[in-house]
Design goal:
Probably part of an ABC transporter complex. Probably responsible for the translocation of the substrate across the membrane. The chain is an all-alpha fold. It has one domain (49-254): MetI-like (MetI-like fold, Orthogonal Bundle). It has helices at residues 10-33, 49-61, 64-96, 98-111, 120-126, 130-155, 159-167, 172-201, 203-207, 215-224, 228-256. The two termini are 20 Å apart. The mean pLDDT is 86.
Length: 266
């Protein structure tokens, strides 16, 4: 006999999520207060949550906060925008053309495993300014997830839909915009969200070659100065900005795809 699983009310789900965060903070407080040493992991130098909150308040009162955030946002979104344009174009070309796949996919697969930090020396040599070098690092971080998810979405479009549209007299452009793009859109949006998260992930690497501003630079500078609480503040700000950016992308994707009814996690 089939049973139906009832969805939890929204307020209950949010309460559970809030409690999970509080539980993590409580464990963090205990581990840092008692300087737990678990052998492989030690919390001897990890600051407690209250110290991190104090460091965050000091940063929020500082006039440098706006400069740090605006610099990082510019670098991430400039590199990300370039990655979106190039990644979607390459993804459609590879997904729709076997010749393009044979020509473009091998070098992309060769470059994809290279970590962002390994691109720093080359970016310094290639680009005339450190700003362009940092934008390039965030671009590289976002490019490959966008390309691969676009390729996957385009290549898995139902061929019966394409054949039906072609039998009704649709041209290649109409097939591309009215059949392939709507069917591949969920995969593309997933790639865009992953690419945004990867761009923020690469930000610290990119801003290691910066000399003045940026949340990644602020985090790295805190490490070199052994301001441990500021390290966690920088990490949390990067996490919040990355999470917010990815949430905006996925929300916009759902609004732009009214034909798709995503399953709600229970």
């Amino acid at each position: 006999m089939a049973t139906t699983v009832r969805a939890r009310p929204a307020n209950v789900r949010w309460a559970i999520r809030g409690l999970s965060i509080l539980a993590c903070i409580a464990l963090w407080q205990i581990a840092s207060t008692y300087h737990l040493n678990l052998g492989v992991v030690t919390f001897r130098n990890v600051p407690p949550p209250l110290e991190v909150v104090q460091a965050a308040l000091a940063l929020f009162r500082s006039p440098k906060l706006a400069a740090h955030i605006t610099s990082s946002l510019w670098r991430v979104f400039a590199g990300y925008a370039a990655a979106v344009v190039m990644g979607v174009i390459l993804g459609f070309a590879i997904g729709r053309s076997r010749a393009a796949s044979d020509l473009l996919l091998p070098p992309l697969e060769l470059l994809r495993p290279i970590p962002a930090v390994a691109w720093i020396p080359l970016s310094i040599l290639v680009f005339p300014s450190s700003e362009l070098s940092m934008i390039y690092i965030t671009f590289i971080g976002a490019l490959f997830p966008i390309v691969l998810n676009t390729v996957h979405g385009v290549a898995n479009v139902d061929r019966r839909l394409v054949a039906s549209a072609r039998s009704l007299g649709a041209g290649e452009f109409s097939i591309l915009t009215e059949v392939v793009l709507p069917d591949a859109a969920p995969g593309i949006v997933t790639g865009l969200a992953i690419g945004m998260g990867t761009s923020w992930f690469c930000l610290v690497t990119a801003e290691m070659i910066s000399g003045q501003f940026g949340i990644g630079y602020y985090t790295w500078e805190a490490y070199t100065l052994q301001n441990y609480a500021d390290i966690i503040v920088g990490m949390l700000i990067i996490g919040l900005l990355g999470m917010g950016s990815s949430w905006l992308l996925t929300t916009a994707g759902r609004l732009l795809m009214p034909w798709r009814n995503p399953k709600v996690a229970r």
